[in-house]
Amino acid sequence: MRGVEAVTHVQGPGGADVVQVMVRDQAALDRLASRLPSDVDGFPVTVEISGTFRAQ
Fold it and tell me: What confidence tens digit (pLDDT) does each residue in 5-23 have?
């Protein structure tokens, strides 16, 4: 999806496994919020504004 920079696995509060979606900016978050699932295969989904990823 345009605006999504990365999807990763992290440990959330209490050590629970979480799928983390990183989005470019607030505009991307606003546009995608209703389209992102609340969970994937039983794992909760969190969203973080990360900025743009660039290869170096």
Answer: 999 999 988 899 999 999 9
Prediction pTM value: 0.84
43 contacts: CB under 8 Å, gap ≥ 6: 17, 18, 19
Tell whether the model's pLDDT for residue 54 goes beyond 90. no
How buried is residue 23: exposed, middle or buried, by Cβ count under 10 Å (0-12/13-18/19+)? buried
* DSSP states of 1-23: -TTEEEEEEEE-GGG-EEEEEEE
* Residue 2 to residues 14, 25, 38, 46, 47, Cα–Cα distance (Å): 31, 11, 19, 17, 14
